[in-house]
Every structure is written in structure tokens, then in C-alpha cells.
Design a protein that fits this description.
2 domains; 21 helices; 10 strands
């Protein structure tokens, strides 16, 4: 890896294009590199993972609304169209990226990478896949595009914090998806450079979408970034240019949205000819919840099984989760959000409440992507009583481990201290989720396939489930027509049972 120094340049301090971060990213994206066998295998895993969570969400209101919007647009003249999950219609690639992006993101259940910033690198796949389908590209070309999307997002996430300044993590997704599309299409560095600049410029947003009364926009935000990436590449192909330098400019992203005019970052990017291994640093979710909740769910269900008395609020005085800065302030009691303890809160808000998630996992000994968020489950009196006894507290050591670059000590969990009414204290801790590469039960192909089958049960016919899995397993070999079939047809069309209100389109 090459460590690139990035800083702000004044207007009278010219920065050659070749020295700009966007150009260096584009250089990585424009080089043809054959993925390693391990990387290829992981890309297939994540295609399966994305499809699994999309299948589980196809009947949810935000997904149906995004699908209806996509179906309102005919296939554009430049290609044959792209598929939308659960829809019999093809649409233009930017709208397929939109609809499928919402489906993938809706349940907060796909892969993750956490470093200086947060991210869900699987959000790259819908946009890159849509363009591949529309333009008749092969599975091999799609594979290379996805590898680039993951690589660029991981490298940006390792170096540049967005949340520190309340900028949403989709600001790293627009550039990574544009870069991935550039690799897919074999575009020159100049074209990808322009697309990256536009994609970044149009996808910066605040983190209010993940705070307070969290709305359905949480699922739409990355889908919008993917849609913008498709449109940015289209404009760049037509010779249109972007703000420059987009990162380093005096009035650019770093100077005014991030660490300010005196800021500097060191961004790692692969050297020429170096394998793109970024996807191997990422990890998926066993549970449908914000990633910082994954390890806590595993610990809570273990404790509930070991100590059944913990499930009854009458036996518990308090449960304090000593954890990282992020967990405490974003999804914990340190946020100051009363919604974190509101039994009538939206699914999106409950998904970002670690006190709620820990309580339900403790009582149920399990976590369900639908039932654990139901109004009936959230409103259960014994749950509400126990829930209000669960708080979080930042612990400097867990914050340090959260930000560590050493995989052996990186941690997303913490230590729980529970005081019982009989005077007993129970203390336990967990560093990473069971499904994490360093966890108790790391996910491999078998687990990804099982996740798909579990989430597809009752939604797809068994034959359709196995068709998709067999197709995905052959990703590098897929011909263009086969790639168009990398979608699913459900047993019943949820759009018929749940028609969405009409919009403008």
C-alpha cells in the first residue's frame, strides 16, 4: 500500500491533478487487476449476503416505495435495462441502483467495516450490478468492479472520519461506487476522476438521518449515493467535469465539511500491480441491527441463558454497558435521545438503541429481524421496565480498541456490569461478534448460504432460492444474460398486497 498525504491547498497554491486524492483513487480504479481466489470467494459471499437481506425486506414500505419509483421509469435507450428485486420489470440502471439499494439497506443487516469512519461496503453492489446488467457486461467484469468499490471505500474509511463532523458515511460511498463502475467499464483515469468528484460533491449529507426520530431515509441515503454515482459516471462519459480539487480545495470537502483548512490525512491505496484486498477486512452481520450491537446481542443471549433470573426486571437493579465512544454516544444512553427508551419508536430508532437491543436479546436468547422490532415486542411491560435499567458508559480502553488498527485487538463490544437486587454482581465482556472473522463462529460460505435460505423462507420458492444461490456461486463465469438473472421472483408479489401511494412519476 502507498500512504498518500492529503491536505488543504489555498486557491493560489496550485495542486496538480495527478497529486489529488480523487485522481489517485481513479488511478487505482483504472488499472486492470485480477482478483485473488480469496477475494473472489468473498465477493460471491457478499452478493449472496446482499440478496439475502434484500429478499427479507421486499415487502417493507420503503422498499416498495423505491421499487414503485423505479418501475415508473422506462429502460433508457443506452442499454437493455437492469433488474429490480421482486419486480418483473426492467428499468434504467440509476433507478435499479436506487430501488435495490433501499432493499439492501432497509434492515441494516448486511456487511460492515469500521475504522476512522463507519461504512457498509455492500452498498456499492447495487449500483455496480445495475450498470453491469444494463450494459451487458460479464460476471468477471462485475467482479472486478465490486472489488474496486470495496477497496476504495475501505481505504477511505481507514483514513478519513466523517461522523466526527456529523457528516454521513455515504460521502465515502459515492466516490467508491463511481470508482467501481469505472473499473467495471474499463474507463480511463480521467473519466473516473471526473465521476469521483461529482459523486462526492452530490453525496455529502449530515448525520441527522441517523439521530433523533430516525426516518425511512436511513435506508434511502446509501441508495441515493449509488444512484448519484451512476449518474456521475454517465455525465463524465459525456465529457462533463467536476469541482476540482474536490477534497483538497480551499472551499472543498476537507476545508469546510471535515477537519478544516489545517487538516491532513494519510490515505492508504494499493500500489500499481498490488492486489486489491480491502474486502477481506470487512465483515457481515449475523443479526439485523446496527453493527455495534452485534457483539452485545451475542453476549446478552449468552447471559440470559446462563442466568435466567436476569430476564425479570424485578431481579435487576441496573445493567451498565462499558463500551466505546461511538456505541455510547450514537446508539447508547450517551446520545441524550429519549427515543432510545421509547417503546413506540420506529424500527429505525430501535435499531439504533443498544439498551433496547441488549434487553430483548437478554430476555429472548435470540434476535429476529422482524419480531424483535415489532410494536408488541417493544411495548411488553417487563421489557420496558428492564430496558430502562440498561445504560451505557464510555470506557477509554474500549474506545482505544475500537479505533485500533491491529486486527488482534480491535473490538466493537465492551464489558457489562449487572447488579441484582440480592446483591449479586455479574460481570462479563465480549470484544467482537461471534460472526466476526476473529469471533467464536466466523462466517464462511456455509453461513452466508444459510442466512440467505433463512431469510428467503416463505418469501421465495425453494427452487428459486437454489437457482439464485447456484447462479451467484458462478459469478466470475456469468455471461451477460445470466447476469441479468441475478435477481429473485417471490412467491407472491408484495406490491399487489401493499400498494404504495402515488407520487409524481
Amino acid at each position: 500500500m502507498i500512504q498518500h498525504h492529503v491536505r488543504v491547498y489555498k486557491a493560489d497554491e496550485p495542486l496538480p491533478r495527478e497529486e489529488q486524492l480523487a485522481w489517485k483513487i481513479a488511478t487505482v480504479a483504472s488499472e486492470t487487476i485480477e482478483p485473488t481466489a480469496e477475494v473472489t470467494d468473498m465477493v460471491i459471499n457478499r452478493v449472496i449476503d446482499n440478496a439475502a437481506v434484500a429478499v427479507a425486506s421486499i415487502g417493507r414500505a420503503p422498499v416498495l416505495a423505491a421499487r414503485a419509483q423505479a418501475e415508473s421509469h422506462r429502460v433508457s435507450t443506452g442499454g437493455r435495462g437492469a433488474s429490480v428485486f421482486a419486480s418483473p420489470q426492467l428499468t434504467s440502471p440509476e433507478w435499479a441502483a436506487w430501488a435495490n439499494g433501499v432493499a439492501v439497506r432497509e434492515l441494516d443487516y448486511h456487511d460492515t467495516f469500521l475504522a476512522a469512519e463507519y461504512s457498509h461496503p455492500g452498498d456499492n453492489i447495487p449500483a455496480i450490478l445495475a450498470v453491469a446488467q444494463h450494459l451487458g457486461r460479464t460476471g468477471e467484469e462485475l467482479l472486478r468492479g465490486i472489488v474496486t468499490g470495496y477497496e476504495i471505500q475501505v481505504d477511505l474509511v481507514k483514513a478519513i472520519s466523517l461522523h466526527k463532523h456529523k457528516i454521513d458515511h455515504v460521502a465515502h460511498l459515492g466516490p467508491s461506487a463511481a470508482a467501481g463502475i469505472g473499473t467495471l467499464l474499463g474507463l480511463p483515469t480521467e473519466t473516473i476522476y471526473q465521476a469521483i468528484g461529482q459523486a462526492l460533491h452530490t453525496t455529502t449529507a449530515t448525520r441527522q438521518s441517523r439521530k433523533g426520530e430516525i426516518s425511512t431515509w436511513k435506508a434511502h441515503a446509501p441508495a441515493f449515493a449509488g444512484k448519484m454515482a451512476v449518474e456521475a459516471v454517465d455525465r463524465a462519459l459525456r465529457g462533463q467535469t467536476s469541482p476540482s480539487p474536490i477534497y483538497e480545495g480551499e472551499d472543498g470537502v476537507i476545508a469546510w465539511l471535515l477537519d478544516g483548512p489545517t487538516a491532513s490525512y494519510t490515505v492508504p491505496l494499493p500500489a500499481a500491480g498490488e492486489a486489491r484486498l480491502g474486502i477481506l477486512d470487512t465483515y457481515t452481520k449475523e443479526h439485523s441491527a446496527e453493527y455495534q450491537a452485534q457483539a452485545w446481542i451475542d453476549l446478552a443471549r449468552k447471559l440470559g441463558q446462563q442466568y435466567p433470573a436476569l430476564r425479570d426486571p424485578a431481579n435487576v437493579v441496573s445493567a451498565v454497558l462499558h463500551t466505546s465512544h461511538h456505541t455510547h454516544y450514537v446508539i447508547g444512553s450517551g446520545s441524550g435521545d429519549p427515543q432510545k427508551y421509547d417503546p413506540t419508536a420506529s424500527r429505525e430508532t430501535l435499531d439504533h438503541s443498544i439498551p433496547y437491543i441488549f434487553t430483548v436479546a437478554l430476555q429472548d436468547g435470540a434476535w429476529d429481524h422482524a419480531g424483535s422490532y415489532s410494536p408488541e415486542r417493544a411495548g411488553r411491560p417487563d421489557t420496558v421496565a428492564l430496558w430502562h435499567k440498561v445504560t451505557t458508559l464510555e470506557d477509554a480502553e474500549w474506545t482505544r480498541r475500537y479505533h485500533s488498527n491491529d486486527p488482534a485487538e480491535k473490538a466493537f463490544g465492551g464489558r457489562v456490569e449487572i447488579e441484582l437486587t440480592n446483591g449479586t454482581r455479574i460481570v462479563d465482556e465480549i470484544a467482537v461478534a461471534d460472526a466476526h472473522p476473529l469471533g467464536a463462529r466466523p462466517f464462511a460460505r456455509e453461513q452466508y448460504v444459510q442466512k440467505f435460505r433463512t431469510l428467503a423462507a416463505g418469501v421465495l420458492h425453494d427452487d428459486e432460492t437454489e437457482r439464485f444461490l447456484a447462479l451467484a456461486a458462478r459469478l466470475p463465469e456469468l455471461a451477460p444474460q445470466e447476469l441479468l438473472s441475478l435477481t429473485v421472483t417471490p412467491l407472491t408479489d408484495p406490491a399487489l398486497a401493499h400498494p404504495t401511494p402515488r407520487g409524481i412519476f
